[in-house]
Protein 1
Amino acid sequence: MSEFVIAVSELTRRFGAMTALASVTLSLPRGSVYGLVGANGAGKTTLIKHILGLLRAQEGSVRIFGYDPVADPVAVLSRVGYLSEENDIPGWMRIEELIRYSRAFYPAWDDAYAEELRKMFALDPMAKVKSLSKGQKARAGLLIALAHRPELLVLDEPSSGLDPIVRRDILGAVIRSVAEEGRTVLFSSHLLEEVEQVADHVTMISGGRIVVSAPLNEIKESHRAGERLPTLDEIFIAHAAGAAPEG
Ligand code: ATP
């Protein structure tokens, strides 16, 4: 078995003349919470799409649990929980149908846990997905992402546009996933104070390149200005401005 849950090596992706990812190398060990941060258009979703096998590496390689996610999608996706910002679950399904439909894809689906999440998220089994609010849809997406107790949970901008209660549910889910031994979380977010609350490790991406990737406490220490540790927001803004603050 691979030592790393995610092993991305020298990954480059171009869309026409535009380089969305430039020689990205990233390895996630089991049991860690990785925050992926970067400005709009930095390349976060493009990286996540490669991890899920939705895009094929043009240059470099991507291995998830040691498998190529494009060549072996079942081996990879049956062990991954995924929630995206778009959260494109079929609108015509009722919650109970969505649960029945989703469980067929995951051998490790846990009915009791799915029901526990449904109750916790106050989702009416008879409600149609298209009638749900954005926050309820996010909860339904999160239920599907978590109920098979994935080894890897990937959250792409899970909090954007959501109220504090739904965000708390999502953060809680992240923490719970990690608490269950050996689970790994990769989540991208623009809400850096949330990243600070839950991430062990932060990877900052800018213009398709990784500019910082280290344990959160190391990043903060290395950007310390005198007595006070900077916030992740301050570190991010300094990097976005083209220069890291004096360390
Ligand atoms: P955001 O925070 O706004 O979601 P992001 O960091 O997720 O941004 P990506 O969606 O990965 O950024 O986009 C990286 C760059 O690649 C952007 O310039 C985007 O316009 C471009 N891009 C992404 N997908 C495509 C595509 N299918 N065709 C052309 N360009 C694309």
Note: The chain is about 35% helix and 25% strand.
Protein 2
Amino acid sequence: MSKVPEMFGTMVFGDSAMRERLPKEVYKALRHTIQNGTALNPQIADVVAGAMKDWAVEKGATHFTHWFQPMTGITAEKHDAFLSPLHDGKVIMEFSGKELIKGEPDASSFPSGGLRATFEARGYTTWDPTSYAFIKDDTLCIPTAFCSYNGEILDKKTPLLRSMEALSKQAVRVLHLFGKDVTRVTPTVGPEQEYFLIDKEGYKQRPDLILTGRTLFGAMPPKGQEMNDHYFGSIRPRVKAFMAELDEEMWKLGIYSKTEHNEVAPGQHEMAPIFTTANIATDHNQITMELMRRVAERHGLVCLLHEKPFEGVNGSGKHNNWSMSTDRGENLLDPGKTPMDNAQFMLFLTAVIAAVDDYQDLLRISVASAGNDHRLGANEAPPAIVSMYVGDELEAIIDAITNGTDYIQGMQRSMDIGVRALPPIPQDNSDRNRTSPFAFTGNKFEFRMPGSSFNIACINIMINSAVADILMRFADELEQAIDFESSLNQLIRRELNTHKRILFNGNGYSEAWPQEAEKRGLHNLPSTPVALLHYTDPENVQMFARQGVFSLTEIKSRQDITMEEYAKTIHIEALTSLDMLDKMIIPACISYSNELASGVAVKAQIGIEASTEKEMVKVLTERIGLLVQARDELAEAIQNEPDTLNERGLYEHEIVIPAMEKARTLADDLEHRVAKNVWPVPTYADLLFYV
Ligand code: ADP
Ligand code: MG
């Protein structure tokens, strides 16, 4: 462990490498670009590229790549060697500023949702100097944004950077009203990552895991997670070795992996990093997921990042911890010590509450996928209804403000936010309300709806843009105020009154909540295709336009891509189900019932009446018949998929998924009735309780 400081960040061209290797002036210019998001002077790009190449070559790198995040898939890279030919047939290692700044991957097969006609295959990538370059597999990876030649964005990073810019601009306006001397505000993010590890041998025998990332069949094992003996339990030696190696790989890449522990379900684990700026956190989380998969391989394990690999067992999510921080290091969601800081805190808190209430649908959309639909609304993850939890103390304060009452515990006069101090607000480390989708935990919000396999860019684009938009409205109003303090009080009271319907401290899993939420007028968008339709609602389109984050065409393309991804995912799952039924499950059930039937016949020949086995054969035959019928219904359902995208999405949800579930229930029942040695795939017990 003593090696950690020496190892940390060794594969990153970060601040210390830059300072060490760049001429002072160049270093200063680059630093300015990084801190203020200003354009990089092309003249210094050559110098930076040269230094970066020398550093990378010393570390054994032979190639470089523009590393980017297309709209689907984890990350994309196209490797080029540093080689440059010389006249005499020899080569030198070269890398120019032009190559650093701009790349042109032939990207015709990345999804663009119609933004880029297929004949116009070209898009280009541009360096994002705010996220450091790093070495992975002997390749210098340069974090980049990806755009079409018309300037439309084709990736997840560009809108994230735009949303960060928008948030900074509006938050700085507000802070200036409080007399704060700041020039930049950055959203900070710490994503906690859940995942499953299973044995590779079992995985290789399951076509569903290989093709869809989740089990499409599988009866509950005699023991599931009911004993709660896995959560924070001691870690299996093989998994421990995996975690140690994963940490080491992450540290080398400058990822602040901090805690690793077992989760609720058997075979489930979690990694939490220390928070950093939203775009670096996003890049790091993308790398983390890739490393998890690769390191697992080396240990004979497979890392499952799917949201719901096992029915009846908790699925995996990602908790997006989010706050805002100034260039002076002040956390804007930290209540602070002086009354004026308290007032500022209340204003930012109010902005987040208003943003989540006004843009509930966008937050729901940012976590919508076929995989995550299995989690949201099931009794384990927050429900599909977006609501917020602020803890008892803040709830009481908010009540006092909105009711105009004079007194609450710990605070002499609460009404006037600007002039009285708030009581200390405890940092909530105990997760008192685990069912809340969006919980305040003392100095940050924790958004718990994201699925484990998600790129967190989209989630943070929504949060940043929505909060920026509310802050813009607040700043517009308060900049006109004659008496700042009284206008501030008025604004906070009015906004909390309007938006407090989004606050809910009760049990989000209860049956009463959806009814209560409906009364409050909150969105309940239970499935991906239903949620996605709201992407292009006028309020959302206008908000993104105001904040300069997405144009209408860009939103539309994202809506189409996500809908298509959803429909394709379900379609592939349905085909895989059919394949497993036809080639594995139905034949196994038939041969087992045949075996029993032969036994009955043989026994009859020697005068023994095998009535029990006979009954078993009868039941099996009946149930196999039902399964074959359900199989045929599923086959027919996918024959009739509509052509229009939105209709297809809804059809998959309403027709195909229930057909798959019907077949699955029958198959899982047969699994209980058929001998283990003839069952064609490893069972849940085999997969989850490996050693
Ligand atoms: P909890 O026990 O409430 O989950 P932790 O202290 O373990 O809280 O933090 C959980 C995650 O939240 C970690 O990834 C941590 O780095 C992150 N986090 C802490 N403070 C902030 C902040 N100001 N902004 C964003 N993320 C934060
Ligand atoms: Mg947490």
Note: Residues 410-420 have pLDDT under 50 and may be disordered.
